[in-house]
Design goal:
- It contains seven helices and no strands.
- It is mainly α.
- The chain has helices at 5-20, 22-33, 37-46, 52-72, 78-90, 98-113, 119-151.
- α1 packs across α7 (119-151), α2 (22-33) crosses α4 and α2 crosses α6 (98-113).
- Helices cover 70% and strands 0% of the residues.
- It binds protoporphyrin IX containing FE.
- Protoporphyrin IX containing FE binds at residues 39, 42-43, 46, 59, 62-63, 66-67, 83-84, 87-88, 91, 93, 97-98, 101, 129, 132-133, 136.
Length: 172
C-alpha cells in the first residue's frame, strides 16, 4: 500500500494548519473518542492516574502531532514507527481500536478547521491515517507474536521494581 502523490501533497499543504491547532484538535478528538468507555480506559491507564481534560489533551497531542509530522517525513518512518508500535503494544492497543481513533481524529479535524477542511482535505487525511494505521498494525502484530512466543513454557523472572500505580493497581 502506498499514498498517491496528490494525497501526499494535500496532506503536506494542510499539515501546518493541523499542527498549529493541535491542542484544540486533540481536545475535540478525545471528547469524541471518550464517548466510548473502553477507549477512555486505555488512555487513563497510560496516564498513571493523572486526571482531567488537560492531561487527556496531552495524551492526545502525540497523536495529532504524529500525523502532521509523519506526513512531512514519509520517507523516514522506520524509527518512529518502531517507537510508537512498542508503546502501543505495551498498552495492548488492538487493530479494532484503529477505526475508532481514525473517526475521532478526522471528526475533530473537521470540527476545528471548519470550512478549510474540504472533502478533498478530509479524504487525503483519511488516506494518510489508513496508511499509517496499516504500517503500525503490521508491526504491532509481529511484536504481539514475538511476545507470545517468548512467554511459552516456564521462565524464571527477577522482580526489578514494584510500582503501586493506583489505589487498586500495582505494576510488578
Ligand atoms: C495511525 C495511528 C496512530 C498513530 C500515528 C499513533 C501515534 C502515537 C504516538 C506518536 C504516541 C506516543 C509514543 C511515545 O510516547 O513515544 C502514541 C501513544 C499512544 N497511543 Fe497511539 N497512534 C495511533 C493509533 C492509536 C490507536 C488506534 C490507539 C487506541 C486507543 C492509540 C493509543 C495510544 C495510547 C494509549 C498511547 C499512550 C499515550 C500517552 O502515554 O500519552 N494510538 N501513539
Amino acid at each position: 500500500m502506498s499514498l498517491s502523490p496528490s494525497t501526499m501533497s494535500t496532506v503536506q499543504a494542510t499539515a501546518p494548519a493541523v499542527r498549529e491547532r493541535g491542542l484544540e484538535i486533540s481536545l475535540r478528538m478525545y471528547e469524541r473518542l471518550f464517548q466510548n468507555e473502553e477507549m477512555k480506559s486505555l488512555f487513563d491507564q497510560s496516564r498513571h492516574g493523572e486526571e482531567g481534560s488537560q492531561s487527556q489533551a496531552f495524551a492526545g497531542a502525540p497523536h495529532t502531532y504524529a500525523y502532521a509530522e509523519t506526513m512531512d517525513r514519509m520517507a523516514d518512518l522506520g524509527p518512529m514507527i518502531e517507537r510508537i508500535a512498542q508503546k502501543h503494544v505495551a498498552l495492548n492497543i488492538r487493530p479494532e481500536h484503529y477505526p475508532l481513533v481514525g473517526e475521532a481524529l478526522l471528526g475533530a479535524i473537521r470540527d476545528v478547521l471548519g470550512e478549510a477542511a474540504t472533502d478533498e482535505v478530509l479524504a487525503a487525511w483519511a488516506g494518510a491515517y489508513a496508511f499509517l494505521a496499516d504500517v503500525l498494525m503490521q508491526r504491532e502484530r509481529d511484536l504481539y507474536q514475538e511476545t507470545r512466543a517468548a512467554l511459552v513454557g516456564r521462565r524464571d523472572f527477577v522482580v526489578d521494581r514494584i510500582d503501586p500505580d493506583r489505589e487498586v493497581v500495582t505494576s510488578v
